[in-house]
Amino acid sequence: MNASVLKFSSEDCGTCHRMSHYDSKVSNELGCEFIDIPMQDTSIYTKYRKILLAQYPKKIGMGWPTYLIVKEPGGEFSIIGEIKGGMSKGDFRTSLTDILSSK
Fold this sequence. Notes:
alpha+beta; four-stranded mixed beta sheet; 4 helices
């Protein structure tokens, strides 16, 4: 499965920062491209905004961080799952594995 993990986060979010110690590593170990998207970085955020708004049209209900697991994020994307909020490395791995194995 070729999937990308898009991490929408805030530079001010402590949970986002804590998860950055392992989220990209776990994603890469499971064969996913990892794309970090700090909401304050308009150049990166603008590129992926349409994907976030497809899932959260008014950004209501997002977690910090919000991970969207996406096929073809640079083109005709499809969202295959999401992970919201903070969790341990093991729980993140389990959640991502479950999404990848169900598609």
